[in-house]
């Protein structure tokens, strides 16, 4: 797979996101480099840029970092991963949702995942009394947005597969979030990567809340279907507990006017009420299925076609082309 094939026909917003990530990351590295050059050789300079990255104790002086920190990767490895993931995921989601909706999704998940992570770091500071949490722990990176992307893919195409190594290894889209969560837990245990852990596990929750309650699709706000309920993101043996807790939380949010109440939604969360034929929800799901089928057919128009023996592959790492399989 060549770089030319990877960046071919990339929509405008995805290009802008990739460019912003590269620009902010390089600018921060220039800042850190010049700071090291001007400092005492015996002093230790942390790889921190408080004017782009989010420094918990400095955020009141640089509130814009609640957004800019998302597009700042502190090393070449994570920057490369972010660029590749943005090219793949942003390209697909922008074509599925449109530039405006993708921009809102990135904006919401980026800012709120940073805010909640920042609050968590502050709690750690007050509990421990260690001011390193304020001035030595930097919040940055696109981990929160990327975990929210996985929720979006679970919503759009849960049964599709992502193929790597020429199709010798593949994984269903709906299982990717579990892999990301496992990696975040391992990173927390081995590397004490508290920021990465928080961003991943906060980002997907914020992405789910936005799609579940606020995102408009075919004129209908949110997706209240039982297949997208919060318990579906957890192992099956936890579904009764998660469903019970989620309904309590949902009821409290309705009373606080944070979201609209709907009796069919509560029943759907418990798995007791399928959409009635002819209802608004059933019609929305029917139109969504038709729209996704049309989208897959449109994305499948490329010079190279997938082999017939692999009809359910979403992305092939060797060819970087979506398949024409129905969701």
From TrEMBL:
Record has Membrane as a keyword: yes
Q: Which residues form a coiled coil?
A: none
Q: What are the recorded Gene Ontology BP terms?
A: retrograde vesicle-mediated transport, Golgi to endoplasmic reticulum
- Membrane topology per record: Multi-pass membrane protein
| Database matches in InterPro entries | Rhomboid-like_sf, TMEM115/Pdh1/Rbl19
- Does the keyword section mention Cytoplasm? no
Give the SMART domains listed for this entry.
DUF1751 (SM01160)
* Compartment(s) where it occurs, according to its Swiss-Prot or TrEMBL record: Membrane
Q: Where is the composition biased (Polar residues)?
A: 318-327
**Signal peptide: which range, if any?**
none
Q: Name one GO cellular component term.
A: Golgi apparatus
Q: Which residues cross the membrane?
A: 12-33, 45-64, 76-93, 105-127, 196-214
Pfam families in the cross-refs: DUF1751
Q: Which UniProt keywords apply?
A: Membrane, Transmembrane, Transmembrane helix
Q: Where is this region: Disordered?
A: 301-327
Query: What is the recorded name of this protein?
Result: Transmembrane protein 115
């Amino acid at each position: 797979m060549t770089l030319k094939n990877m960046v071919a026909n990339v929509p405008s917003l995805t290009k802008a996101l990739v460019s912003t990530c590269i620009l902010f990351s390089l600018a921060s590295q220039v800042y850190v480099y010049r700071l090291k050059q001007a400092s005492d050789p015996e002093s230790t300079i942390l790889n921190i840029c408080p004017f782009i990255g989010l420094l918990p104790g400095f955020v009141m002086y640089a509130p814009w970092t609640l957004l800019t920190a998302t597009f700042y990767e502190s090393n070449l490895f994570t920057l490369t991963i972010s660029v590749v993931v943005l090219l793949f995921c942003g390209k697909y989601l922008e074509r599925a949702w449109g530039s405006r909706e993708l921009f809102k999704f990135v904006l919401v998940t980026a800012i709120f995942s940073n805010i909640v992570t920042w609050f968590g770091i502050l709690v750690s500071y007050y509990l421990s009394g260690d001011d390193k949490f304020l001035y030595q722990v930097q919040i940055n990176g696109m981990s929160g947005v990327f975990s929210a992307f996985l929720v979006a893919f679970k919503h759009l195409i849960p049964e599709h597969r992502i193929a790597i190594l020429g199709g010798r290894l593949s994984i269903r889209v709906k299982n990717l979030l579990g892999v990301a969560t496992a990696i975040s837990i391992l990173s927390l245990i081995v590397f004490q990567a508290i920021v990465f852990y928080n961003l991943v596990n906060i980002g997907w929750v914020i992405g789910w809340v936005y799609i579940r309650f606020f995102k408009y699709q075919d004129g209908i706000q949110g997706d209240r279907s039982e297949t997208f309920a919060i318990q579906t993101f957890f192992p099956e043996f936890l579904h009764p507990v998660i469903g019970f807790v989620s309904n309590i939380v949902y009821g409290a949010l309705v009373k606080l006017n944070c979201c609209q109440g709907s009796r069919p939604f509560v029943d759907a969360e418990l798995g007791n009420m399928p959409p009635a034929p002819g209802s608004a929800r059933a019609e929305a799901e029917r139109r969504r299925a038709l729209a996704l089928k049309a989208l897959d057919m449109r994305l499948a128009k490329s010079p190279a076609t997938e082999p017939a023996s692999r009809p359910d592959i979403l992305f092939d790492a060797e060819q970087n082309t979506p398949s024409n399989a129905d969701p």
